[in-house]
UniProtKB/TrEMBL annotation:
Domain Gamma-glutamylcyclotransferase AIG2-like: 4-121
Pfam families, per database record: GGACT
Cited PANTHER family: GAMMA-GLUTAMYLAMINECYCLOTRANSFERASE (PTHR12510:SF4), TROPONIN C-AKIN-1 PROTEIN (PTHR12510)
SUPFAM superfamilies noted in UniProt: Gamma-glutamyl cyclotransferase-like
Species whose genome carries this gene: Thermus brockianus
Family the entry assigns: Belongs to the gamma-glutamylcyclotransferase family.
Protein name: Gamma-glutamylcyclotransferase family protein
Length: 123
């Protein structure tokens, strides 16, 4: 079982959650320290708005999804792993205690991005 920290369109109720909804075994709310969150507006190459998490000052709130390992290639494809995002293991603080989880960190330029200092997406 893999743990994946999601903070945007893969959260429950958001547009891309359906990609993994049938595979989710469990969901635990949590946050990651030492990261900054940005809003990437729709336009240009982005057909819809979505967030970007990068290392930095702050805290990002989201959910840890417990998924079977075969879900990772689906997420890698969605996130354009290695091009737009990089999947890395991070520490997530949850009500069950700290746990390691995969997270997708943004790799591209943040010039058009809007900072979200409260660490929550959607803004």
């Amino acid at each position: 079982m893999e743990r994946v920290f999601v903070y945007g369109t893969l959260k429950r109720g958001e547009r891309n959650h359906a990609l993994v909804a049938g595979r989710v075994q469990r969901v635990v709310p949590g946050y990651a320290e030492g990261f900054a969150l940005y809003h990437l507006p729709a336009g240009g190459e982005r057909p819809y708005a979505y967030p970007a998490m990068v290392r930095g000052e702050g805290r990002v709130y989201g959910e840890v999804l417990f998924l079977p390992g075969e879900a990772l290639p689906l997420l890698d494809a969605l996130e354009e792993e290695g091009e737009e995002y990089r999947r890395e293991r991070i520490l997530v603080h949850t009500e069950e205690g700290p746990m390691e989880a995969w997270a997708y960190l943004y790799l591209r330029d943040l010039r058009e991005a809007l900072p979200l200092p409260e660490g929550v997406w959607p803004p």
